[in-house]
Write a structure and sequence with these properties.
With 328 residues, the chain is mainly alpha-helical. The chain has helices at 15-19, 22-52, 57-83, 86-105, 107-110, 113-138, 145-171, 177-192, 218-224, 228-245, 254-263, 268-285, 294-303, 305-327. Helix 2 runs parallel beside helix 4 (86-105) and helix 9 runs antiparallel to helix 14 (305-327).
């Protein structure tokens, strides 16, 4: 085995660096689909085994015990994954989870005791690896406390979303457990395959995408941001325009800004706060007074986002004026 350490080589990635790359989203979607499968199986497998196969509760309990024990063994494989060939090990774990799901949800296979137990072991082992390795990779803390909290927070939110929606979805597909789980795992593997094997060990890519700043009326921005599509458009533009005035690795790329706000809306106050932090840092470098306080933007972004957007736009307008006056 060729060593490819992923925890010993410390490379500085900010939270924005991570979220602005496909590797973050690929791992996150794979993790989400794996978690959905685990929740669906834990909710409906006992019904499937008793109703479809006529197994006794003792036999059902054995299946869940094997899954739990196999998940504990996943700790060791996850440790290997975080130290060496991370993506190949995750692919193997996903294949094991897929194979295990097929063996314990396909009536003709699950009715055979040895195949049922083997499926339980494969599923538990694969799920254990994914559940342990990916949060460790995403929230490895290479970029400091902020990167750790944000990355771990996203994993935490995604896990709870999966736990909340998987049973409701499977409620309508109770008899389709043997189709639902394989489809989820196959989609997860497809998303995982393009993820770069270097993950967050190589230096973060250059990702400053400046856009020409445009002056906008803050009140108009607040009103228009009540429209979801304009909200996303403004986020895209604001990140590119702030990057042209106050380049910072602590702000997202324009594409990542609307992607994160759409799929992880809980992250929006942090995103808005990063914009004003970048503008304030630039003002400090120029010897100018700071703009809005970070905590003000954060609170408005949490309680009523359009006001936060208007304040950021107002400060962006001021920064444009100061930049122009300095140039002349």
């Amino acid at each position: 085995m060729t060593n490819q350490p992923s925890t010993d080589t410390q490379v500085s990635w900010t939270w924005a660096d991570q979220i602005s790359t496909y590797r973050f989203w690929g791992l996150l979607v794979f993790y989400f689909l794996s978690a959905v499968c685990v929740t669906s199986l834990s909710t409906f497998l006992s019904l499937f085994l008793t109703d479809e196969l006529g197994l006794q509760f003792r036999d059902v309990g054995i299946v869940f015990t094997v899954i739990a024990i196999a998940g504990l063994f996943g700790f060791y494989v996850a440790w290997v994954a975080t130290r060496w060939k991370t993506i190949p090990v995750l692919i193997i774990a996903g294949v094991l989870q897929l194979l295990g799901g097929l063996l314990i949800t396909t009536p003709g296979l699950a009715s055979i005791t040895i195949l049922r137990l083997a499926g339980a072991f494969f599923f538990g082992l694969g799920a254990g690896v994914v559940m342990l390795a990916i949060p460790s990779i995403l929230s490895g803390g290479r970029g400091g406390d902020k990167a750790f909290v944000i990355s771990f927070g996203i994993v935490f939110v995604v896990t709870h979303i999966g736990e909340a929606f998987a049973p409701a979805l499977m409620g309508a597909l109770r008899n389709g457990l043997g189709i639902f789980i394989p489809v989820c795992m196959i989609l997860g593997l497809i998303v995982l395959l393009p993820v770069k094997p270097s993950l967050f060990n190589a230096p973060p890519p250059q990702r400053i995408y400046p856009l020409v700043p445009t002056r906008r009326d803050p009140i108009s921005v607040a009103i228009l941001c009540l429209i979801p599509f304009y909200w996303l458009y403004w986020l895209y533009r604001a990140h590119g325009e702030v990057a042209s005035i106050a380049p910072s690795r602590n702000i997202l790329s324009p594409q990542a800004s609307w992607l994160a706000s759409t799929f992880v809306p809980l992250l929006y106050p942090v995103i808005a706060n990063s914009l004003i932090d970048a503008l304030n840092t630039r003002a400090s470098e120029l010897g100018k007074p700071s703009y809005s306080h970070s905590w003000v933007i954060f609170l408005w972004a949490f309680t009523f986002p359009p006001v936060a957007m208007a304040l950021v736009q107002s400060d962006l307008n001021k920064a444009m004026v100061e930049l122009t006056s300095q140039a002349t």
